[in-house]
Amino acid sequence: MIPSSETGISFNNKVTDTRELNIFNFRNFYNGAGVAIGDIDNDGKPDIFFTANQGQNKLYLNKGNFRFEDISARAGIKDEGKWYTGVTMVDINGDGWLDIYVCNSGKLGTNKPNDLYINQHNGTFKKEAAKYGLDDIGLSTHAAFFDYDHDGDLDCFVLNNSPRSIESFGYNKNIRNIRDAKNGDRFYRNDN
Q1: Each residue of 114-124: pLDDT tens digit?
Q2: What pTM does this model have?
């Protein structure tokens, strides 16, 4: 293993439970965060994006020879206090540059729409999830992009967790029949 002092990567997804937020009132507390690898600056070297459940997401630019630079702040990747989960690098607008889609989850009732960072081709990103209709507000875990309808653009499937805490499950055999308007997996068809 190469030490962080040599690579420049010092990311740590530290999760700390509290009386208000723990495995009993957020059943997905230990699901973990995410990592995406892709070439965001089209230089042929894979860059890395880490998500953090209770900390700051980090975008590391590959400088070559296993050296990386944390460009999160300069790139416009901001910590908004969300419970970040999965992350996907995808060229959502077909311009030849990878964009970044970040899923958010966490405590119920918080403002946690998923984030879509559109690559501005200059080392910066612009948040545009609402513009693309991808600002899902469920307890999202991860997303996959693919051309479902074979029309040449990418559609999106978002995997969302249940909003029910462990204590509310009981032994109800028909729990799968209970629907929640804001949660449940989602499919977004791109008609652009």
Answers
A1: 999 999 999 99
A2: 0.87
